[in-house]
Amino acid sequence: MISWVLGAGFVLLVIVGLVVELTARRAVPSRPTGGDLVRILVATRTGRFVVVALWVWVGWHFLAR
To answer: Is 33 exposed, middle or buried (0-12, 13-18, 19+ CB in 10 A)?
Structure first.
């Protein structure tokens, strides 16, 4: 039961991410895409640290099995 709910949650997150990305690409240029957001985040040392820390957290909790 739990694995089904988690799988559905991941699918929902992917769908929401795709909808946001496609909306950003079709909307006015003031709405940043996913790549733009990452570029803005890694522009500073703190931002790079946050991106790496989030990536490590995701890898540790969801990808390491």
So the answer is: middle
Which are the contacts of 42, defined by CB distance < 8 A and separation ≥ 6? 48, 51
Type of residue numbered 10: F
Predicted TM-score of the model (pTM): 0.56
- Which domain covers residue 49, as residue numbers? 32-65
pLDDT tens, 38-60? 898 899 999 999 989 988 988 88
39 in the same domain as 25: no
